[in-house]
Design brief:
This protein is mainly alpha-helical and 249 residues long. The chain is 64% helix and 3% strand.
């Protein structure tokens, strides 16, 4: 009985370890080969997307799924397909561990043309590229922060201000404390909070409306746009971004 219980414990431990370590070596190699094939410049965008989606779906437990979802998000954003870019970037953030890119992806043109190298350059200039873990200096992984920012910008463009505010707050949490990016996202979040509060207050009926003898009320008159301080915030963002190397888009 003890041996059976011990064997069961060992079996469960092995299964848990495999799950924690994701796929085995052979599966990782298959995913890597398929992913490398997707980045072949001879492929059409449609062919490339199809292979990358296969990697993200069929090899979701490999480390190459992060790279596939990231490239899919970059491609969708580059083609102006905001909704698909949001879909892929949300999937990237919803994975079990924080997303990161493999060295192979960082050697590709899609990476060189992305914002990631520029953000790393700004972090290096501002002294936030590395953090200390014990006795080791670990390079900051900007991918979660940038992905949250990209989602926030997309939601704000679509008028989904509550979702944009949520992802700016996530970007703040993912940024190095006190860094240029944390301050930038904090200002954007504050601006959105004021805008959302203004929209909520303007949508509320005035006190006593509809009480005057039960008279039928017409639709509220449109109000001229009010200055909520967004212009001052945007000017502050521009000064901060120029000082740190144009952190935003």
């Amino acid at each position: 009985m003890r041996r059976t219980a011990l064997a069961l414990v060992i079996c469960l431990a092995v299964m848990a370890a495999r799950h924690a370590d994701c796929a085995d070596g052979a599966t990782e190699q298959e995913a890597q080969g398929l992913y490398a094939q997707a980045l072949n410049v001879a492929l059409t965008p449609g062919e490339r997307i199809s292979i990358l989606e296969q990697v993200a779906k069929d090899y979701a437990d490999t480390r190459w799924a992060d790279d596939a979802l990231w490239v899919l998000g970059e491609m969708a954003h580059g083609s102006g397909d905001t909704r698909r870019a949001i879909l892929f970037r949300r999937q990237l953030l919803e994975r079990d561990s924080p997303p990161c890119l493999e060295a192979f992806t960082r050697s590709q043109r899609v990476y060189a043309r992305s914002r990631v190298p520029h953000v790393l350059f700004v972090l290096e200039r501002t002294g936030h590229l590395y953090r200390t873990e014990g006795r080791q200096a670990v390079q900051f992984n900007p991918l979660p922060m940038i992905t949250c920012e990209e989602l926030a910008l997309a939601y704000e463009d679509m008028g989904l201000l509550e979702l944009a505010l949520r992802d700016y707050r996530r970007a703040i949490a993912a940024a190095p404390p006190g860094d240029l990016y944390a301050r930038l996202y904090a200002r954007r979040a504050e601006r959105l909070e004021r805008k959302i509060a203004l929209l909520h207050s303007s949508s509320q009926p005035p006190a006593g409306a509809g009480e005057a003898g039960g008279a039928e009320q017409g639709p509220p008159e449109e109000r001229p746009p009010q200055d909520t301080g967004a212009k001052a915030d945007e000017q502050g963002e521009q000064r901060e971004e120029s000082a740190g190397g144009a952190a935003g888009r």
